[in-house]
Design goal:
mainly beta, Lipocalin, ten-stranded antiparallel barrel, 0% helix, globular
Length: 149
C-alpha cells in the first residue's frame, strides 16, 4: 500500500518512444511531457495525467491496490482513442515495480510489461515493453524519465 506515493505531485517527463513497434526498429522519437499524480484511498489508489503537447494527445493511468493479493492493477487510457485498456498487474519488490498484462497491438496479441525503477524523491524511470513470444523476449518501446517539476 502506498507504493506509488513517490509519484504524487508534478513532473517534467522526457519521453523516448519507438517510432515503429514489433518490426525491429531502432528509430526513437523524443518528446517532452508533463505529468501530475495524486493518491486516493489512503494510498491504495493513484491517478496520474500526462500531457504531450508536441504530440497532440494526452493520457492517464488509474492504479488500484488489491490488499488481499497485495498486487496493483494499472489501467492506461489515451485521448487518442478514449479506451481504458486492460490492466497490467504486479507489485514492488526492493524499490522496483514490475507489472504484466495481455493486450493487442495493431491486431497482434502482446504481453505487456511496465517497469518502475530508479525512484528517488526527485526522479523516476518508467518503461513499457512488448513480447510476442509469451515473455521470452521483450522489445522496450517507450521510456519516460521523470524529474520533479
Amino acid at each position: 500500500m502506498g507504493d506509488f506515493d513517490f509519484l504524487v505531485g508534478d513532473w517534467q517527463v522526457a519521453n523516448r518512444r519507438l517510432t515503429e513497434r514489433l518490426v525491429g526498429s531502432t528509430d526513437w522519437a523524443e518528446f517532452p511531457g508533463t505529468s501530475t499524480a495524486w493518491s486516493l484511498f489512503d494510498g491504495r489508489a493513484n491517478i496520474d495525467t500526462f500531457a504531450f503537447p508536441s504530440q497532440g494527445w494526452s493520457g492517464m493511468t488509474v492504479r488500484l491496490f488489491d490488499p488481499r493479493r497485495e498486487e496493483w492493477s494499472l489501467y492506461w487510457a489515451s485521448s487518442r482513442d478514449g479506451v481504458l485498456g486492460p490492466p497490467v498487474v504486479g507489485r514492488f519488490v526492493d524499490g522496483r515495480g514490475e507489472f504484466y498484462g495481455d493486450d493487442t497491438y495493431e491486431g497482434t496479441p502482446v504481453r505487456i510489461r511496465y517497469i518502475w525503477s530508479e525512484i528517488t524523491p526527485t526522479s523516476a524511470r518508467w518503461e513499457q515493453a512488448f513480447s510476442v513470444d509469451g515473455g521470452r523476449s521483450w522489445e522496450i518501446n517507450w521510456v519516460m524519465a521523470l524529474s520533479r517539476a
